Amino acid sequence: MENNLKDYISQYYKIRKKMKTLYYVMNVVYFDAATVAPPKSYIERGEYMGILSEDVYKLKTSDEFVNIVEKLYESKNQLDLDFAHEITLLKEEIEQAKKIPMDEMIEFEKTLNEAQVKWEEAKHKSDFSIFQPFLEKIVEYKRKEVKYLETEEFKGYDVLLNMFERGYTQIEYDEFFNVIKEELVPFVKQVCAVKKQNFPFSKMMYEKTKQEEVAKYMGDVLCFDFSKGSMAETEHPFTWNTNNHNVRITNHFHENDFASSLFSAIHEFGHALYEQNVDDKFNDTFIGGGVSMAMHESQSRFYENVIGRNYAFWKIHYPKIQEIYQEQLKNVSLDDFYQYINNVEASFIRTEADELTYPLHVMLRYELEKELISGTLEVKDLEKAWNNKIKEYFGLEVPCSAMGVLQDSHWSGGSIGYFPTYALGSAISAQLYYNMQEEFDVIQSLKEGNTKDINNWLKEKIHKFGSSKYPKEILEKALNGKFDAKYYIQYLKEKYSKIYSI
Ligand code: ZN
User: Fold this and answer.
1) pTM, whole model, 2 decimals?
2) Residue 422 Cα to ligand 1 middle (Å)
3) Which of 185, 325, 364, 480 could potentially form a cystine with 389 if both were Cys, beta carbons 3.0 to 4.6 Å apart?
4) Residue 4: is its pLDDT beyond 70?
């Protein structure tokens, strides 16, 4: 290796360490703010965080750093594969940033700040017209951004889709959602027409401390490593990490809805296991965490739905839950509990939707985003288009904007192209299950009382790589082939035809 190259590498390591340190501190402050910091602590925090993020921005965009990355990129054939990938990703990021005029980007940041506040107000008052002018600005910017970033390969909405899930464009998503539309929409109508039983135990009060005990028990069952991870409480559950030694999940405990915290815990543990199982060698790099949105969601939904709503799983663990919730569940059979946690209903809110209807909520958003970006739909007509689709897919009339077009925060945060990754992740989880099943008896392995075998399989096929390769590369190797929606449809139809005897 030339001396020059060695120098560039050591300079790169130095700046990267500084950046990692700043990110670390900012992340910890963010977690502190979301969990235990008192309300008024925001007064100084905002300013200090501003200074830290300015420092990161300056380091990242400095001529020195950009030059080092470019030099390393030119010699990437001499670097080891993981490091070369890290440099390639940074180089791509730098190239993209150059294409967007700085003043437009700053203006957009301002719009987003205001849009966030207006969206909250609009949702609170259930009045779309309050948010409409801000969403118009966001969509207008996104249409321009697409023009700036278009390449031979990615055009229009594809540019945005590619930002959240690299390598997935309208061709892949259209194919995917067409299958959902043809196969799942009629099936959902059939399932929704079945008369459902009542579950009086679901309306009872479940003490918060007991819900915490259940969540902790689930952590042990899923082999979450509490020496590298912890649990805390927030308004909305999420997973947080700095590297594989510091992975935390949060939860929210509704005393009148025990299933909410139970499945949030399993879902977030799924994200967290992914992060804990990334190879140690990536801890000090930029290619440490999970590789993409859909891949992350495929892990959380694998644990939440494929495992966490599986009969064999509960056959082993229900007695424990019943023991903790003695008062409420002592006369509830395993079959009733299983039926309840897999209850299917046409509903308005995506985040509360069951496993079967969930992808329809995502499809609706995908279709609307696609039209907004191509210009065949304008923001002023968005609410009407939304309500029509809810009617078409679920046969429901949206009662108010808050339960319709205003329910999600994504658009107000400028995220267009994000939603489809949720459904893609769910579909990937089903295909992973069939692949895993070919190598060992997944259901039989659950009888051990934990998910060790499953975790190991996912670690070897997906987790350990972190972001050291492109997501499609990791996925297609794990799947022994390409993503195919038919496994998802097969999984859902097999499961729910049995549950509802259809
Ligand atoms: Zn998730």
Assistant:
1) 0.95
2) 8
3) 364
4) yes
